[in-house]
Amino acid sequence: MPGNTWGHSFRITTAGESHGPGNVVIIDGVPSGLELSVDDLLPDLARRRPGQSSIVTQRKEADQPRILSGVFEGRTTGTSIAILIENTDQRSRDYSDIQKKYRPGHADYTFDAKYGFRDYRGGGRSSARETTVRVAAGAVAKKLLASVGVEVLGYVVQVGDIRASINDPANISLDQVEANMVRCPDAKAADQMIELIERVRSERDSIGGVAEVVATGVPPGWGEPVFDKLKADLGKAMFSLPAVVGVEYGAGFAVATARGSENNDHFVYRGGRITTDSNRHGGMLGGISSGTPIVLRCAVKPTSSIPMEQPTVTQDGEATTISTKGRHDPCLLPRFVPMAEAMMALTLADHMLRQRAMAASEG
Amino acid sequence: MPGNTWGHSFRITTAGESHGPGNVVIIDGVPSGLELSVDDLLPDLARRRPGQSSIVTQRKEADQPRILSGVFEGRTTGTSIAILIENTDQRSRDYSDIQKKYRPGHADYTFDAKYGFRDYRGGGRSSARETTVRVAAGAVAKKLLASVGVEVLGYVVQVGDIRASINDPANISLDQVEANMVRCPDAKAADQMIELIERVRSERDSIGGVAEVVATGVPPGWGEPVFDKLKADLGKAMFSLPAVVGVEYGAGFAVATARGSENNDHFVYRGGRITTDSNRHGGMLGGISSGTPIVLRCAVKPTSSIPMEQPTVTQDGEATTISTKGRHDPCLLPRFVPMAEAMMALTLADHMLRQRAMAASEG
Amino acid sequence: MPGNTWGHSFRITTAGESHGPGNVVIIDGVPSGLELSVDDLLPDLARRRPGQSSIVTQRKEADQPRILSGVFEGRTTGTSIAILIENTDQRSRDYSDIQKKYRPGHADYTFDAKYGFRDYRGGGRSSARETTVRVAAGAVAKKLLASVGVEVLGYVVQVGDIRASINDPANISLDQVEANMVRCPDAKAADQMIELIERVRSERDSIGGVAEVVATGVPPGWGEPVFDKLKADLGKAMFSLPAVVGVEYGAGFAVATARGSENNDHFVYRGGRITTDSNRHGGMLGGISSGTPIVLRCAVKPTSSIPMEQPTVTQDGEATTISTKGRHDPCLLPRFVPMAEAMMALTLADHMLRQRAMAASEG
Amino acid sequence: MPGNTWGHSFRITTAGESHGPGNVVIIDGVPSGLELSVDDLLPDLARRRPGQSSIVTQRKEADQPRILSGVFEGRTTGTSIAILIENTDQRSRDYSDIQKKYRPGHADYTFDAKYGFRDYRGGGRSSARETTVRVAAGAVAKKLLASVGVEVLGYVVQVGDIRASINDPANISLDQVEANMVRCPDAKAADQMIELIERVRSERDSIGGVAEVVATGVPPGWGEPVFDKLKADLGKAMFSLPAVVGVEYGAGFAVATARGSENNDHFVYRGGRITTDSNRHGGMLGGISSGTPIVLRCAVKPTSSIPMEQPTVTQDGEATTISTKGRHDPCLLPRFVPMAEAMMALTLADHMLRQRAMAASEG
Lengths: 363, 363, 363, 363
Fold this sequence. Notes:
Strand order of the largest sheet of chain A: 1-2-3-7-4
Order of helices and strands of chain A: EEEHEEEEHHHEEHHEHEHEEEEEEEH
Strand content of chain A: 15-25%
Distance between the termini of chain A: 38 Å
Structural class of chain A: alpha+beta
Oligomer: homotetramer
Number of helices of chain A: 9
Radius of gyration of chain A: 21 Å
CATH architecture of chain A: 4-Layer Sandwich
């Protein structure tokens, strides 16, 4: 079975390459009656877009989405929604380097091994360009979630050895995130991150980091044990994004050194409902949402494409060197934030609808 | 859609609770002709079994599997395979505590929120007892993988602040892992881990840790972009297991502080094939296996059930306290290893068959 | 992808062969809180059971189901339900005939071609014995449907050239169907059918027929265009049963000679709701339930196993003859009825839950 | 779960309405290396196109497909293929009739019941216009099948009471089918059918019919028991098409009056392989292809839209009348043929890839 579909009850299927005519997503499962227009898609696309600031790639893309179906008189009809984003920057250039040499850290070799050959223009399907339509679909999922009071927000918490200080993940605002071009709500850390990214770029290198993504308003009960636990599907969602090599919830890897007595969050009755007095568990217990904010972090590797010269081999196994010419992100994190939000929103929308079907029988 | 099925081409569906009559798995997609008997299932079940050593729960379970279908004259027929493991330890006891109180760190509250009520005996379906049949099915997947030269092995690399020293994840043997009851191939660290676990237990508490799971022999080309990347499905596999709150590949969260120039593994031609000179990428590029060993680590939280008294609330929101009576694991890691191996094997078997279907057309 | 799973939101996965230890079904997606016990499964199993009357096979099977999970204190928990029916009639006999010769009309040859070898005892997985657990699962689906007012009932309308006269498919009762052993509510036709079946049997032959299956109480709105239309899924459900070679809805093949002006049912307002003044459309328009009774018919071929000697070949292609020894149904129809009801109920339960998830957004 | 996806290993997902911007299909699972261009899609689109002859609807559509992804340098890359067909005939007209009145035989009422409201322009998603992209995707499936020697061909065998005489379904050529505008290979019957259709049209009415669809070259072994039998999936494929109310294989409903001794096809050894001496079974046994031609027939109802005035009700239940203005097909059969071929090809391509994954283990 191929792998270009995400979700079950709320599902998206995507197609498109870096330098082909365009990228397409079909969203199937959006309930009817939701207000939707192209304007709903633009803000997140702008947050993902190349060229948005001085610390991201300067590739030029309009990223103008076109809704081809599923919306009538401003509302979703319940039928499948197709969105097309044409690639405008398909300028002809010389790809002979990529065509024959395997770029370190990229999927050139593995695509060749899997498919026998590949679209070598800008990475083809392995390029992060395919996430454009994920972000557009994620904006639809966010609208659906907003209708039941759920909000998803991500931000950068680490670039290199610069770490943000976040008091309460559930109390960060979009404005705080968008206040600077690195998308870190800790203004002081943000300045240092930007400085680091600029230094790294000037050194013809790249740098990794960590993003945190938070969902608030998720009611208790979403997630389908034993395999489609919410933490399992959210984990898959994040790992499906390019460059993600680690995911953790709540206390995360720090649980390794913790005792049960300190790691367990205690149930309390507060504000008319049962909740926990702390959130080391990250919003899910037994893989089902607990009603507390869902908090996860993704480790994002440094951009594989760097201007610096690196050793590699050709398709025929001959030793050579390669260096990335042209545009690249010195740090993926600022543009990663809307992608991660999109995947979280798509996953939550799916589980929201799945829970509707599983709701206790009244009979 | 409910969530008790794993995989697509090689898929398992499970049922069963902690204190019901038994646990069942149906394995669908096993190619015909594979030699299979109950004996193939026993070793991993023994590694998962309660009561196997002094540092795990002392619950008594025979864990004797029965193959009900899909095998004829010692070979798989290509039809679905059902395996039943009856629960022998269903002794009557007093569950009134669990029934009305929410155990910290457990799924009691979230199950109630999701389903309206729950089987409160020993955690019901949220108990790790359901992993028994995952391990049995994983043993079948391991046999299929072995037929193409793939091996899966896990071990413990951290308990509390004790860290093992592992030179080469691809060169650990099952004998090294099974040489001690904590399943850590670093003998010296193993002794310290066992000592720590015993101390923690004597303090009526529990402790977390980290396990590493490795697959060797996976050919380049497994994994289905863009959503069913191998790293995405393996990540989901691990997060579907109880108590896992973090997963990372290769260099993992350490990439956050790395430069691209140091993080990129370089392609080289060695031993007649293209590979990389290091394995910070953990065996997958673009979510597709690269031919190098797949290496991941799981952060496992300390057991939520502890004999120590903890504050909590009842179903009605009244403050109370609870302490676990009877049997529990002071540290989940030793028994977690075969569970994680099973999920990795099931995922790899699925992608092995998926790649068969996707193989390049000869026409 | 293998094929032993039915449904999406309400799904069953089955395993088991004719002469293996037993047949198993895992039902996943049953909402919590539904009252359920083994007693709910027995009536339909009795209607399907061999040996129930003089005109069916005399194989002896207790068909005693055991619920292994998913039910607690008499109610479903929302987790997966496993049901096991052990095979009691596994008496040792000589299968050398079947092992080497291909029985006409059976799946012996195609199973060998597909899997390389097969379990030749009684047809293995290709035996209708696998429908036992479908019927058990169907009984669970019927209970869920009954909780929203939906009932499913089937009956025989044709055996050979004997045709029943049915005035109104929506007004047949279970009592009428069960009033005779051929399950035809037209008592006079039933007598003739029984007489025909007995004559055919005495001639060492078998005979085909047609069953009609009806669902009443289905609200308008079930079915998921464009591929998972209700008529598409019900059609697949029926064709998944052994021996079914034709399916038609409402007017069925008779539409070929009809004009649009006579075939269109007209919408009317009656009893406080919109409906149609006739039901040539069989209860679905655009593949979505219209609120009128769903009516379909299945053509069931004559039993392939006949005592009469027939020409065939061996696995090696040598000409030979074969005749069925022992027990067989001279006509499949009486026992087909509960199987068809089960598949219709399972399909409707799935679409009932799917529609819940698709219900119009309130936001 | 929504329903706009077909297939598992070879899968398509579609979107689009009658009068929206366009229809889109994403094809996922096409193996890499298959030669493919827009020219491959045009012949079948032309066979489906409105306005192709005097006996079909005169709506004007260019039906010009655009391949947006998944093809590079004339070959498929193994990644998902998106095809867009824009609607050119979106002329503004008065839909107030359809908007408020329920057209007999159409899905207007059921869409309203399901989704709460609908795109009333030309039927929206319930229009057969959505089959445009099915036919485009079917052309891709046909190319893949041709690479292993499988061919799919359909034709009309009945219109009203005019029945074609077909000697051997496996020996009809595309030229014979395309020799006349009704797509009936029996030239004499074709003339009568055309005459009947023209008479019916002049009477402001419509007429039903039957199409036969045949696949040759399918090797034994395709189909996945027990639920995804090839006959089950092909049956669903046909019933997913608009206006299909009956499907039968081989002898079809005629089996009802047959004895087993006459209905069983006998195995023989011929031409170096095992086959049957007749093909009453229609090419599948036990739901698995037997190596003989697959033969099925679909009953297609008379077009619901007729110029003649018919009684109906408004959304509010008020009695009224309606008559179709403008373009309609007096008989659906000629344009149904390429749609049915497409669905058969898509289903066979899926099972071809599924069988690859299920092939017997060599280990």
